[in-house]
């Protein structure tokens, strides 16, 4: 039996976590990113740094793509130094970006036409779960693809939700997840700013609400960033500008009202326009705090 080798293209918080989990599981892992820091971390963990997507994919049976958007996916797959140029026929491409379902279908179909197997596989769980090999994958694709790379999927995921054979199903599920995630971040921000304006201690608010019915995964995960005033990005404001934009476009195409998405997207767009796009998505609280004329932790302005 041929030893399974993996490639991870795009070493952001989720991609790097997946690459580290693969290496920890003893799967030879080649990673590519434009930034040197994640490449160095992967190398220190026993992985291998590649100079291009093509170099990472050469010889790999499982090729995970963790870029941000459709344009980046197109480039790392089919560009001059793209993974398809060196991948062996029958290699399994696992496409993890949040894309419009129709965009995902086009990419998967092109991979199949090139002689590859493709899995539509958006992920969820956050940076720490990625590092722990505990993410969730919303996946659709042929049985053969899942079987060929089962050890790699087991290394990075606590749960792989099989949503059918055809591409698009995984991405449709991610749209629903991102609808809730984006709205919940905006709601967290509203709650924290209202609490601050009320003179409440935000650490106490965090402790109490996480044990009460009003909590959510996003409140538990993002609230501490507001409490500490540390907006180091794991998922940035601009990610949700993109993702909630996809949700809104999907809903419009289906003639389905999403008023809470519309309100949350407006907030994320405003935060981005005010220069907060590169900060953690929880930084939308800064926009509301400025409107409320209240100071949050880490904020020197009145």
From TrEMBL:
One of its GO terms (molecular function) is NADP binding. Pfam families: NAD_binding_11, NAD_binding_2. Its EC number is 1.1.1.411. Residues 7-164 form the 6-phosphogluconate dehydrogenase NADP-binding domain. Keywords: Carbohydrate metabolism, NAD, NADP, Oxidoreductase. It comes from Paracoccus sulfuroxidans. It catalyses: L-threonate + NAD(+) = 2-dehydro-L-erythronate + NADH + H(+). InterPro entries: 3-OH-isobutyrate_DH-rel_CS, 6-PGluconate_DH-like_C_sf, 6PGD_dom2, 6PGDH_NADP-bd, HIBADH-like_NADP-bd, HIBADH-related, LtnD, NAD(P)-bd_dom_sf. GO terms for biological process: organic acid catabolic process. Belongs to the HIBADH-related family. L-threonate dehydrogenase subfamily. The active site is at 174. Residues 168-288 form the 3-hydroxyisobutyrate dehydrogenase-like NAD-binding domain. This is L-threonate dehydrogenase. Catalyzes oxidation of L-threonate to 2-oxo-tetronate. Can use either NAD(+) or NADP(+) as cosubstrate, with a preference for NAD(+). SUPFAM superfamilies: 6-phosphogluconate dehydrogenase C-terminal domain-like, NAD(P)-binding Rossmann-fold domains.
């Amino acid at each position: 039996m041929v030893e399974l080798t993996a490639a991870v293209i795009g070493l952001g918080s989720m991609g790097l976590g997946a690459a580290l989990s693969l290496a920890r599981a003893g799967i030879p892992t080649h990673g590519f990113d434009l930034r040197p820091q994640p490449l160095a971390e992967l190398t220190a963990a026993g992985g291998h740094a590649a100079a291009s997507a093509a170099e990472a994919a050469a010889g790999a049976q499982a090729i995970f793509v963790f870029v941000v958007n459709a344009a980046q996916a197109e480039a790392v797959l089919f560009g001059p130094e793209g993974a398809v140029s060196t991948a062996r026929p029958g290699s399994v491409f696992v496409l993890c970006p949040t894309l419009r379902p129709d965009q995902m279908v086009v990419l998967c179909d092109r991979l199949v036409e090139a002689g590859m197997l493709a899995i539509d596989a958006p992920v969820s769980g956050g940076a720490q779960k990625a590092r722990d090999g505990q993410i969730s994958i919303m996946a659709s694709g042929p049985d053969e693809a899942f079987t060929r790379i089962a050890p790699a999927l087991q290394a990075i995921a606590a749960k792989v939700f099989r949503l059918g054979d055809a591409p698009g199903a995984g991405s449709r599920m991610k749209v629903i997840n991102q609808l809730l995630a984006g709205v919940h971040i905006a709601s967290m921000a509203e709650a924290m700013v209202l609490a601050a304006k009320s003179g409440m201690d935000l650490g106490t608010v965090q402790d109490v609400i996480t044990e009460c019915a009003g909590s959510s995964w996003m409140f538990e995960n993002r609230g501490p960033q507001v409490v500490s005033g540390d907006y180091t990005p794991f998922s940035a404001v601009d990610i949700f500008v993109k993702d909630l934009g996809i949700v809104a476009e999907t809903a419009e195409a289906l003639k389905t009202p999403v008023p809470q998405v519309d309100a949350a997207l407006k907030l994320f767009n405003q935060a981005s326009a005010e220069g907060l796009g590169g900060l953690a998505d929880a930084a939308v609280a800064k926009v509301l705090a400025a409107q409320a004329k209240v100071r949050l932790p880490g904020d020197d302005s009145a």
